[in-house]
Design brief:
Layout lengths: L2 E5 L5 E3 L9 E12 L3 E11 L7 E10 L8 H4 L3 H14 L4 H4 L4 H4 L9 E4 L5 E6 L12 E6 H4 L7 H7 L8
Antiparallel strand pairs: 1-2, 1-3, 3-4, 4-5, 6-7, 7-8
Length: 180
């Protein structure tokens, strides 16, 4: 259930139980889901909010992946040897891979023909361990109307464009069709 607030007349707000159609409100909704396998647990935290007087609501999708053996969070630097090269690989994936075609059509002009994308705000490893999906927040690389941007990076394709770490090679390992 969203948390709904009404202005209290002192530039603050207070929670309300029942909505009155003649008042102005803001709200926030937070949802958390999780999935796991024998090696990884991935948490998705979605937030949705609307500030009093805002033109539209705002939403986020933040992922956190935990390596169950070590208990540590998995970061992009744990998967690719040089995260600076990842921006180039993401730009190439947007241009070259059919799976990212819809995203290509919605990018801000500054990113349409770029050879480097910014580091993603978040990412997740697909459940079959065939790839990484880079996730960008609202307004990062495309207009609000296009939503949260996701760039699919199949691991076999990614391994040809950036060096994977030994950890990533073990994690994606057999069945991911990584070149030897």
């Amino acid at each position: 259930k969203p948390y709904v607030y009404e202005a209290d007349g002192t530039n603050g707000s207070k929670p309300v139980d029942r909505l009155d159609e003649n008042r102005e409100y803001s709200y926030a909704n937070i949802e958390c889901t999780a999935r796991h396998d024998s090696a990884l647990a991935t948490f998705l935290v979605k937030t949705e909010s609307y500030g009093l007087g805002a033109a539209h609501g705002f939403h986020t999708a933040d992922y956190l992946t935990i390596d169950l053996a070590s208990g540590n969070a998995v970061h992009l630097a744990d998967l690719v040897a040089d995260t600076n090269l990842l921006g180039e690989a993401i730009a190439r994936a947007i241009q070259d891979l059919e799976t990212n075609k819809e995203l290509r059509e919605c990018l801000f002009d500054d990113y349409r023909d770029t050879d480097r994308m910014p580091q993603p705000a978040s990412f997740f490893i697909d459940s079959a361990r065939n790839g990484i999906t880079a996730v960008y927040g609202l307004y990062e690389i495309q207009p609000y109307a296009c939503g949260i941007a996701s760039v699919e990076l199949p691991i076999f394709w990614l391994s040809k464009h950036v060096e994977l770490t030994p950890y990533a090679k073990r994690l994606f390992g057999p069945g991911s069709h990584l070149p030897e």
